[in-house]
Amino acid sequence: MKSKKIVRCAVIAAIYAVISLVLAPISYGPVQARVSEALTLLPIFTPDAIIGVTLGCFITNLIGVFTGANILGVLDIFLGTVATFAAALCTRALRNVVVKKLPVASVLPPILFNALVVGAELWRVIGPHTLSAFLIEALWVGVGEALSCVVLGFILVRAIESTPVLKKWFEE
Fold this sequence. Notes:
mainly alpha
């Protein structure tokens, strides 16, 4: 792997983890808006971001478990990270589906994967174990994810596209 790719992955992972941990009160828990999830749109620009956001999520979940912030426990280290990885792959695959120059399809995988996976984790930990309780947990995670990805993510995409230095940094 080239040095630039390694650095790009590491920087994305570090930014994801720092944002999540600084904003820990809203990054973990039954109602969460993980602001760092805006970075899940970065695979639109480079496949290196798939590894970067996945690693950032892993670090965030790992530290969260060991500091007690992440109520989902060890399961989230793996399942939450796998959800982010799968979402990042799909985001990359959908990068060319655009409406008015916005990658509208690319925003859906992080919202759906996290709503379902993290929603299921919360349902398992918090209960009650009914279908309606699962749907409520998934909805809350999905709403937080949508705020992060749609609002902040689209702002991030526009900022990268309109800033030559950033756009060049993401080029292969």
